[in-house]
């Protein structure tokens, strides 16, 4: 459903409607900086019909006593949020289940938030979640979200949290059957200048049909966040938890599907990264990045095609990132927020040529110089993968590039300072593989495609009929 087609209610109206719904009953628990959700329900009126208990645990020792068996631990974390949800929901059910009729749907809302400090030196963020019954006497489901707070004032952040908390509870009981409507409703009476929703995860027996990876990519499409990350197991991860102070190797592509060429880019670039003095396997993460533009078809996401790509990459042990960063300097700026140690970006020659094209930086006051200042901070380098020249069959390396006279000195500076490194160990027998040709061969059942992808990927494509494999045979059979 399009955002403009929905009737957007005020925060007070949502809270009042929930309060007047006799089938909804639960508790609100807030620790840290988020103390506003309960206030929204009490000020709306009629809260006694919905709120069994509200608790504000501002002191860390009290928080540990209630939710962590008295032991100190991370307070603003997904783990602490889950402990809060489970504690509050179990207490609610144990005390009140027998006192309410069978139509009651119980819920527990919790948040743990770090708002901006007095010196304005911290990153404001928080976790919010609801554990709730979608059906009367049903098994509980959970929705958890992570947000970054962008406002530069504690009071404004608290108002934002109050609105978001009401939106989240409302969405759980009124929009859960339509995931994208659910996501859109989180931003009712808010905007992306105030808050960024970086992750949403749904789970539970009544939500088993929801694929959290689709929620993640929809967040990016809706403009609610700039990127989403799935680990090699296909689990949606909070980016900061996965990237903070890590070494990152990022390779951008369509991966439709991953080919021997893409696999060689990963292997050869990782081999170079391993030679770095500060390399550590445990602190290094490789990401296969797909831009949103490479997922859209006529403005919409082809869910089957998207999942085909991610499933295949995950099955090969790869982490996946979906972003809306067309320009590489924006991608670098995004990673910089996580204080990563070293960043290496793998780029093929065709894309590397475009990096030096001034037209992509016309929106910047400093033009290409400003863009390159952002693209090459001290911890960042580009690994350049060669290409095969069709006409001559020659292997083209970055040193073979012919650039405009005013740009060439800039490139020479980058080379001299080892900000741009050549991948010399590329497998030349793979350079002929072109993504567009590969996908067309799969769709047309041209057996040549099987020699262009790793064996594991080949078998998986055949077994699951990914990327349109086998459709042509089916069409031929139907015509006979």
Can you offer a commentary on this structure?
This is Nicotinamide mononucleotide adenylyltransferase. It comes from Williamwhitmania taraxaci. It is a single chain. The protein has 480 residues and is an alpha/beta fold. It has three domains: 208 residues, Maf protein, CATH 3.90.950.20; 190 residues, 3-Layer(aba) Sandwich (Rossmann fold), CATH 3.40.50; 45 residues, no CATH class. Helix content is 37%, strand content 21%. It has an eight-stranded mixed β-sheet with strand order 8-7-13-10-9-14-15-18, with helices on both faces. A hairpin with a 6-residue loop joins strand 16 and strand 17. Helix 1 crosses helix 2, helix 2 packs across helix 5 and helix 11 packs across helix 13. The radius of gyration is 25 Å and the shape is globular. It starts with 10 loop residues before the first helix and ends with a helix.
